[in-house]
Amino acid sequence: MEIRASVEVQSPAESAFSLLCAVEKWPLWLPFFRTAKLREPNETLGQGSEIFVRSAIPGEAEQLFEVDRFIQNHQVSLVGAYSTRRRLDFRLESRSKSARLHARLEYPAYGGRLGVLYDRFRSARKLKTQFEEAVVHFKHLVEYDATKDALLADF
User: What confidence tens digit (pLDDT) does each residue in 86-115 have?
Assistant: First the structure.
């Protein structure tokens, strides 16, 4: 199963990429993630980093992902440590004052064709909707400027 979504972000790619690299904040904008943390809490996200994720993606409750592609300010791609058919890929296209985020989620659907059909009706539609909403939420988090919000200026 594969789900794709993309969104235009009115912010430089560097700002968007810094939010992508904040692994602990993923559950804020990825609603199907309950928790996300680096295996080594003191390291920064990069090629070979391992990330523990608790999610609602079909499969085990806690999954280990490894960063298999990392290009600064451009791409973060994770692959399942125990199943290479699990992949989460974020790619940023840099423009002059904005960026475009392309996100892709792949996960296995077991049980042959019948299993794929069952998964489409059971969880794929909900997951697709959540994934599309997640990239929009990501956009708003990147574009949010607390200095322009008088209500939150005191915080």
Answer: 899 999 999 888 999 999 998 776 566 665
Q: Domain for residue 150, yes or no? A: no
Largest CA distance in the chain: 56
**Cα–Cα distance for residue pair 68/86, rounded to 1 Å:** 12
At 41, which helix (H) or strand (E)?
none
- Joined together, the tokens standing for residue 42 give 């003191």
Query: What's 26's domain CATH number?
Result: 3.30.530.20
Residue 71 lies in a domain: yes
Answer yes or no: is 154 within a domain. no
Q: Based on the structure, what is the number of domains in the chain?
A: 1
| Strand order, beta sheet including 75-80 | 2-9, 99-106, 87-94, 75-80, 62-71, 50-55, 33-38
- DSSP at 153: T
Structure tokens at 112: 């042959």
